[in-house]
Amino acid sequence: MKTILFSLPGNQELTELLAKKMDAEIGECSLRKFPDGESYTRILSDVKGKCVVMVCTLHNPDEKLLPLYFLSHTAKSLGAMCTCLVAPYLAYMRQDKVFHEGEGVTSTFFGKLISGFADSITTIDPHLHRISSLGEVYDIPNRVIHASNEIAKYINQNIHNPVLIGPDAESEQWVSDVAKKAGAPFIVLEKVRHGDRDVEVSVPYIDKYKESTPVLVDDIISTARTMIETTEHLKNAGMKPPICMGIHAVFSGNAYQDLWDADVKDIITCNTIPHQSNGIDLSDIIAKEVTELMHHI
Question: What pTM did the predictor assign?
Answer without folding.
Answer: 0.92
